[in-house]
Write a structure and sequence with these properties.
With 303 residues, the protein is an alpha/beta fold. It is built from 9 helices and 10 strands. Strands 1, 2, 3, 4, 5, 6, 7, 8, 9 and 10 form a 10-stranded mixed beta sheet that branches. Helix 6 runs parallel beside helix 7 and helix 7 packs antiparallel against helix 8.
């Protein structure tokens, strides 16, 4: 049995995914890892070039886009490794990634999920993630430690508990999923890894960060392009996260804040940016939470 299963999800990004597979092939011991690629409703079949690039690749094709959680859950179902390493397909790894993450899990049984240092691929001296601060559950806001700092090794020796992992790179033991459970498909996009971290905490596990290894993430340093799908799911899922993970009183206080302050502020910003087309998606994201249970699998958005 392979010790580590690496799971990644592709959605219409064949060139990026090929770079990812080359990186994994270059920086891992192929006898100790299996790589599972979930093609998440892509419009074209690139399975042949993926398998040619990485012989032994476990390729799974989904006829529909199941989102981040749903795609990774398909990979989990096929995984045979003791450890599961979830990597975005737009990342490139370093040589000690697998060994350092498994080392941390081997040395500390309390760790449930662990993420490495994340650097921007196009600006490799700039930090994207070095852990996360605790959540303010009334506003559903926290901060990313190290974000936009110049990396001069200040986090290299850190091996510490943190509040949340980063979804672009995180590892867990497969055995811990018996108590923690899978990622929830009903988030589809955004907040699913935060919700998963909460599940691990409820199962008695800790969330961890290590700076002893790193990956490079091809996400832009600038704010991502605004779109209807991003606006809808960011609005919907922020409230859904609170509903799923806090008391009814906290949910009430958050809802008052979200409806009277945060959402009007978002609408104002869209007006200022001349993006009035996105305003309705704020209201639709809010509306979903008042018309659906917190466990509903109805996304409320046609993918």
């Amino acid at each position: 049995m392979k010790r580590t299963s690496i799971i990644t999800v592709n959605f219409n990004q064949p060139a990026v995914t090929l770079d990812f597979l080359r990186s994994v092939k270059l920086h891992t011991n192929l006898t100790e890892v299996e790589v599972i690629l979930v093609d998440n409703g892509s419009t074209e079949d690139h399975s042949a070039i993926f398998i040619n690039e990485y012989p032994g690749l476990i390729y799974i094709s989904s006829s529909e886009n199941l989102g981040f959680a749903g795609g990774n859950n398909l990979g989990i179902a096929k995984a045979e490794g003791e450890y599961l390493l979830f990597l975005n397909n737009d990342t490139e790894i370093t040589g000690n990634l697998v060994t350092e993450l498994t080392r941390a899990l081997d040395e500390n049984q309390e760790i449930g999920l662990i993420s490495p240092l994340l650097l921007y691929f196009d600006a490799p001296d700039v930090i994207q993630y070095a852990g996360a601060t605790k959540m303010n559950y009334i506003t559903c806001r926290n901060s990313t430690i190290g974000a936009m700092e110049i990396d001069h090794g200040q986090y290299n020796e850190q091996d510490v508990e943190t509040a949340f992992c980063h979804g672009a790179a995180m590892m867990c033991r497969k055995a811990d999923l018996v108590t923690a459970g899978l990622m929830d498909n009903n988030f589809f996009l955004y907040y699913e890894e935060l919700d998963w971290c909460e599940k691990f905490k409820k199962a008695g596990k800790k969330i961890w960060f290590t700076g002893r290894t790193k990956i490079y993430h091809k996400e832009s340093m600038s704010v991502g392009k605004e779109s209807s799908i991003k606006t809808y799911f960011m609005t919907r899922n922020r409230m859904l996260f609170i509903r799923r993970n806090t008391s009814w009183l906290n949910t009430l206080l958050f809802s008052l804040y979200y409806i009277s302050i945060a959402s009007p502020k978002q609408v104002f910003m869209y007006r200022k940016k001349n993006r009035k087309d996105l305003i309705k998606w704020v209201f639709l994201g809010l509306k979903w939470n008042f018309t659906h249970s917190k466990d509903s699998n109805d996304l409320g958005f046609k993918i």
